[in-house]
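Schema walk-through. Below, the input block comes first and the output block second. Nothing else is stored per chain. Lengths vary across the set, and this one has 274 residues.
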Amino acid sequence: MAKESKKDPAEFSVEEKLKALYQLQTMLSEIDKIKTLRGELPLEVQDLEDELAGLNTRIEKIKGEITDLTKSIADSKVAIERSKSLIAKYTEQQDNVRNNREFDALNKEIEYQNLNVELAEKHIRDFSAAMNAKNEELQHSQDLISEKSEDLNIKKGELQEIIEETRQEEEKLRERSKSIELTVEPRLLQSFKRIRNNTRNGLGIVYVQRESCGGCFNKIPPQRQLDVRMRKKIIVCEYCGRIIIDPELAGVKEEQKVVEAPKRRTRKAAAADE
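--- output ---
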């Protein structure tokens, strides 16, 4: 027996297309509910991971600055020792000078080296103060990393728990939605997805509720309501742009207006009117 070929989505009637779209919307709405259940956790996890990466980069930079300051302090100490050694040498030479000119020249060298010592000592004080500040900054950043890492582990645990609880259900919904998408012609599917992405609640197709659009709740003109019920063409809301279908196609019972029968007048009441 020959296998029946699949029907081309373009050959589907408008009613079949609308029904498929509404089924797809139902699947996607269920997936949205799962995402809502996860809430802001995925974003919070991502933000914490980014923040930790930034803190680690900052810590590496601070450590590099502390290393540079430590080297600068060591270099300044070496410069002090060198200047003190020269001061001792020039002082000793002053005892063996032959005239005042040589003595004054050595005295100027001693004064110059004393200035170098004072300058190097000032640099050491400045470098030490800067290094203390950097060490405090480093400690603060490390404390922040410990705090943020703990928060991240908690958030990841909560997110993983929700993912584990909803994974199977979400996978089934995604598989079913993909199957339905194959039954919708590409242009219509693209339009539906565009409408859905432009709405806050993710509804691209809605049914009529109390003679109004089920998405924006604006009144639908009688003629358009009739067109919706006829299911001969795709109707969109002139206010919000959503595709509109009749409740029956969505599997929803439409509320019937209760019309009261006129009360029967008695002979006594008729006589009273006369």
